Amino acid sequence: MPATTPPLRVTVLVGSTREGRFAPVVTKWLTGHLDQRDDLRADVVDLAETPLPTVFPAFGQQPPPGTEERLALVSPRLAQADAFVLVTPEYNHSFPASLKNAIDWHNEEWHGKPVGFVSYGGLSGGLRAVEQLRVVMAELNAMTIRNTVSLHDAWSRFDADGNCTDPAADTAAKALLDQLAWWGHALRDAKSVRGYVA
């Protein structure tokens, strides 16, 4: 990457808000990989720390009081992102309602940007959540990355200090971020030339 090329701003969106969640362990590991790169800069948006409203206003109506203040903690950060990584578990063969809620509050923030996925869970490793997220993000004009990180039986892949003990997971993370960087730069460059048309 040329020295004059600014790094991509990657928003890591943490989808689980459940008490006792494993998401912080996975997110810390992922951001460790991001911090090792000069071409990517991470911004973690944790929906447990920045909860969004769950009641949407009627079309054409103003949102309820307090809505804009809560959105202000999240929306500008999504808008400024060049790329995203969604960190998600699998709930009932799908992804958490908190993540869908955050996605639905936004539209243009996703347009023309690459989205990668890091999923975790039991035997499925969250892959069914990712497959459904791909359909949702396509509707929002986002480009999903083929490579994913899927942590099967995730709790067994980290030690008591939160360090990943599975070299294959580290290899998968690198492959994901390499693809995310390629698409992120390609799409950012394209939008700088002709903008994005939804």
TrEMBL record:
Xref: InterPro entries: Flavoprotein-like_sf, FMN_Rdtase-like_dom, NAD(P)H-dep_reductase
Source organism of this protein record: Streptomyces coeruleofuscus
PANTHER family, alphabetized: CHROMATE REDUCTASE, NAD(P)H-DEPENDENT FMN REDUCTASE LOT6
Pfam families: FMN_red
Protein name: NAD(P)H-dependent oxidoreductase
Domain NADPH-dependent FMN reductase-like, first and last residues per copy: 9-155
Residue spans crossing the bilayer: none
